[in-house]
Fold this sequence. Notes:
The chain has 972 residues and is of the alpha+beta class.
Amino acid sequence: MNPNEIELLKTELERERAARIQAETILDEKAMELFESNQNLIRLNQNLEAQINEKVAELGKSEIRYKQLIESVQDIIYKISPDGYFTFVNPTIEQRLGYQECEIIGRHFTELVLPEYRESLVNFYYEMIASKQESTYNEFPVFHKDGHIIWIGQTVRLMLENEEINELVAVARDITDRKSTEEILKSTQIRLSTLISNMQSGILVEDESRHIILVNQFLCDTLGFNSAPESLVGIDCESALHELKNYFSEPEEFASRVNTLVAEQKLVVNEKVRTADGRILERDYIPIFIDDHYTGHLWRYNDVTENFNTQETIRKSEEKYRGIMNNMELGLLEVDNDQTIIRAYDKFCKMVGYTEAELLGKNAMELFLPKEFITIIEEQQNLRKIGGSSSYELPILKKDGEILWTLISGAPIIDEHGVTVGSIGIHYDLTERKTLEQELSLAKQIAEDARQAEKQFLANMSHEIRTPLNAIIGMAHLLFDTHPTNQQVEYLEILRSSADFLHSLISDLLDMAKIEAGKIEVNHKEFDLVGLLKTVQKVFEIKIGNRPLDVNVMIDSKIHGAYVGDDLLLNQILLNIIGNAEKFTEKGEINITVRQLKEIAKDEVLLEFQIADTGIGISPEKLELIFQKFKQINQQGHKHKGTGLGLAITKELIELQGGEIHATSVEGKGTTFIFSLPYKRSDNIIITAPAPSSKLSETKDFENGHILVVEDNLMNQKYISSLLNKWNRQFTVVSDGRQAVEQIHKHKFDIIFMDLQMPHMDGYEATIAIRSTQTPNQHIPIVALTASAMLDQKVKAMAVGMSDFLPKPFAPNQLFEMLQKYRKLSNEETDDDFEEIIPVVSNTEPQTQQTATVENPIDYERLDEMYEGDVEYQADMFDTFLTDVYPEFKDLAPLVEQQNFPELKKLAHKLKPTLGMVGLTQLEKQLVEVERRALDKPEYYDLKARVDQLLKALNQIHPILENELQRLQNLQ
Ligand code: ADP
């Protein structure tokens, strides 16, 4: 029973008591009145009294019960007088506050209250009394007897008697536990709200009826509210939503989503919403449940615009990157440092047939790499570790077991601390290309085989073609001796020139084939360069005959003595170039200039050869083509039979020896070919004669010494025989090498003409046998006869010890020249006609005054005439020319340039005699020509070419003049 009920009961009891007293009084009065009048009523009265007594007894009992009740309740029940003094207190006070009832009764209630609460408490109850408030509730702290504080929650009721306050009844309960829990709760609440207020997220908490109970400044700032957070507390969000939604870019969608979230009451985080001003907010919805009971929810809003934009940029760039990669047919794979796959892009997955999920976490090396290629990847890994990128080809195993050939471009993946954390490989599918490559290589092999077969065929055919061709040419020559009619001579000319052309064509083709097959070897041996040049010059002079074309050779004075290199190749190069110059130059000059360009190393020099002609020239566009195969340029107005291979072969031969070639040309004026070649110098004396002369004495002892012809082809045998018969020579013909070797044991010969390809024993074997056998013929000149003009055959022939080479088909005079050449050696006779082409013996001494001829531009004869041996006078003139006159020549060029022909003429006239004074007769003639042309009808280009050429020549001659001056000074 609660105190109120007790109070009610007590009040009822009091009322009953009052009623009883009233009833007793009435009864007494009535009894007195009735006592006198009605004895019966006494008994009734007595009964009534008995009944009343019974009632009173009953009432007494209930009062005891109430008393017991008051004493036994856990709350302190007390009474105080209207002025605040204790009049009654139940025993519970001792239990609660440690005081006994007697210690309390009579004390003022404020004595127990904590001083700081006393005043407010007194005021509170004063107010209660003043306003006659029937009942109040209040909480305050009081002291326990032992001094500690007890919180009391008490109900006080006013007891009125006749409208007057009689006393105050209080029921006080110990609420200390509840108070401390409340305190904890309160401080927790403060902490929480402080935390929320200061959070760097916008927070809004609504209760279950959607009223705002908490909101922080950050939220107001984030959403752009102007109001202070406290002013928002209590707002009904449901009704405020129609206004709030306008802060967002899609208001209706926003509102409906909010309503859905609230209705579903499920946690949703990181939802993105866009504000009306274009910002991106991230939102969480957190429903709050207490004991499974929904009590509201919390919203968290954060502005993630910057982050979102960055992410978006990254995403877009990655999307773009992926798009590009996918479109580029490139497969990307990322692995860590242990080759574990950390990312595989779509295209790569398609390439290898795996899904990305199947690849992630797998070891790329183990999964894709055929074992034999592991070292490649290890090398690549090491390279990545030091930050290197590279590209390489690798076969990788697809899921279906097939091989995918890839070109991988690999690069390290470097983290923000600069540490290599893995690598990325961009794979390009090469399978198709590889297959193509294999097919191509097969096709190439087939083509190469075919080419080889073709070359072999050509080589073989050469023999087959050359042999009958040889006979055709030979027979044609013989026919000339049979007194043909004029018409027959004409036919024979055509026959001969066609056969000659065919012959050169086949030779060129074979040479080219050899060069392309890399079968040309450069043989280094000592040779006499000056002698070689003289021979070449002579050959062309003979060829040119009476045509108004001079072949001049000018050699730098630094060039003398022996050089080490391949003279055969040089000879062929010069013949090709000068041959062309001769073909394309009607009249004028072919100037061959050789000079030392530079010293490459000790005893090694780079020589420059210039062959300048005054022929028809080549147009600039055609000039670019002349070194290409089969580019025979259609020269206007010039009928030229050629293969178009000559210069291509020449270029190859020069490059093969480490040199270079180029050409310059002016149409109508002439062409200059310039090539360089490196040579070693040698101080040895060279003997280029084919056989040592010491052995020749033996040859004279043989009376029957004659010519041995070793040739297997009957027609050729017949051709040579008829020629030798015609020249009354003695000869023996055999048809293979074996028979030749037999012959050399039986007879002494003067010379052997030896075919190379023969049955039983070929020409090489026979030569080796002859050279290695002690017979009188051991050192005999052996001239190789072969239908193959291939360079290596010449080289091989020389290597086995043959002395010379006569390519078939040869003209009678070639055979004759060969005979003359070796006759001189064997008979030690002189034949003036061939003196110049007999290989010369040269030494390392510089050219003396007397030997200086074509290769030295100085005309010594003239100088002798002029100075008659007065060396001092001559030296003086040379000095004056070099110091004072030579610089004046430079003025010729600007005069031509300015087209100042009168002045040009004057200067040419003035300088002309000075050239003669130093023996430059040739240049003098050129200057005379310049003078003449400057006077007659000056032509700019013509004069320019002439002056340029003259100055160039003079420039080249300058060191020669200086040497000469030096020599003259030494002689004094
Ligand atoms: P071919 O054997 O046909 O002469 P080359 O390779 O020797 O072939 O020469 C190619 C072409 O270059 C010739 O056909 C000719 O038109 C041109 N050519 C070469 N040398 C000269 C030169 N000195 N003057 C003019 N044209 C030349």
